[in-house]
UniProtKB/TrEMBL annotation, chains A, B:
Nucleotidase that shows phosphatase activity on nucleoside 5'-monophosphates. The keyword Cytoplasm applies. Binds 1 divalent metal cation per subunit. It is an enzyme of class 3 (hydrolase). The lineage of its organism: Bacteria, Pseudomonadati, Bacteroidota, Flavobacteriia, Flavobacteriales. GO terms for cellular component: cytoplasm. It comes from Flavobacterium arcticum. This is 5'-nucleotidase SurE.
């Protein structure tokens, strides 16, 4: 009998978030699951790692079926590093991150702890997928995502992923019967228009909360934003080679070495 | 007389780091400088932003010549957002980040607070450059970088940058006379091979320090690692559209919508 694939599960909302529990439930159907996830919410920590502080790892038993479940005091990326190099001491067959409580489509990918964990696994050469649901509610309904997650994970286990590529999967907030299918997309061009909510603390000192509005600047029907708005699950293949190859020739024309 | 360009200076080593003071000194020669930088070291914070905590902004006077200098309690990316949307309430003509104490070449770009600040400015449509010196010493000699920084900044102010492109500039640890010139490069394929340094605290609990070794897996002569090792200043054009376009067709062959 073929050995079950070893699957590392992580997230950025913290190990007790309903989203990761839903993801664990699906992964238990297809492989041997190891969970290593932050012990507290780590949304929007991007690709942050802990180099100026210590890391604590605790064995936990949130899911009685899983032999190896650990919380980590660091970021999502720390959790992946700890899992691979300290806990497993080997590379799992798959790393899945999420299910994030909230969208990681378009430009959100760059702020996302969920996606950064998946990207870190991809950098290690591990096939990796980040899953996010466009619903920020802690009690969001993750049931409609499960069939799709299983299908996508099985395809990745079967086919592998191109070198240097990670999948960013986003779900619309819909019932399963309302979801039209899966679309492979590009990242939509979008921005956050920030606003700072200024307040005064009891000591009379001003402080700020970061807030803002998401603005989609891209009507392309091949984008993740279009897919999500039209009832599809979006998959964007993401890479960590950030080189803007198309700009190299233009910069070479600048004659920067003339004196 | 043409108005002097408005230049936003930030970094990730904190507002008092020698690296940012060197960068400010160069920028004062070419424009009106506004400084908004983290009040404490924020290395390796990547594209982290502060959404679960408050932000404090303090006007400081570290450089008597500069009217607008502020420290921010958040990350490098927070500092850029605060600068543009709360302090300036307009977009500067240029944003420069650094000079980082340590290399941000190859895969380091993805962990780097210095580069994430520049990328955030780029996302706002501001021409942006991150500068880093391959020397982690707090008392590193930044003098050899200054002529190059001035030249690169003036070229960006003159030509602008292609849409969605930010420059990642790295300097070798050499005397100015030893530097052979500037090379436009691609990001070398490299990884960090992590190791966790396990220790025990006075209460008997295990904790870890993240450590590791940088492994360059790419001998290409068009890479930033090659340029730096051969005495050149490297410039990699960096983008924040993370879509792996080359993988889209392959994923479309997966028939994910078959039932």
């Amino acid at each position: 009998m073929k050995k079950k694939p070893l699957i590392l599960v992580t997230n950025d909302d913290g190990i007790s978030a309903p989203g990761i529990r839903a993801l664990i439930a699906v992964m238990k159907q297809i492989g041997e699951v190891v969970v290593v996830a932050p012990d507290s919410p780590q949304s929007a920590t991007g690709h942050s790692i802990t180099i100026n502080n210590t890391l604590f790892i605790n064995k936990v038993t949130m899911d009685g079926d899983i032999e190896q479940e650990y919380s980590c005091s660091g970021t999502p990326v720390d959790s992946v590093k700890v899992a691979v190099h300290e806990i497993l001491k080997c590379k799992p067959d798959l790393c899945v991150s999420g299910i994030n409580h909230g969208s990681n489509s378009s430009i959100n990918v760059i702020y996302s702890g969920t996606m950064s964990a998946a990207v870190e696994a991809g950098m290690e050469g591990i096939p990796a997928i980040g899953f996010s649901l466009s619903d920020y509610d802690w009690n969001a309904d993750f049931e409609p995502t499960k069939t799709f997650i299983k299908k996508i994970a099985l395809e990745v286990l079967k086919n592998g992923l191109p070198e240097g590529v990670i999948l960013n999967v986003n779900f619309p907030k819909l019932k399963e019967s309302e979801i039209k299918g899966i679309k492979i997309c590009r990242q939509a061009k979008a921005v956050w228009e920030e606003r700072f909510d200024k307040r005064t603390n009891p000591q009379g000192k001003d402080y700020y909360w970061l807030t803002g509005e998401f603005i989609n600047k891209d009507n392309g029907e091949d984008t993740d934003e279009w897919a999500l708005a039209h009832g599809y699950v979006s998959i964007v293949p993401v890479q960590f080679d950030l080189t803007a190859y198309h700009a190299i020739q233009q910069l070479n024309n600048w004659k920067l070495n003339n004196t």
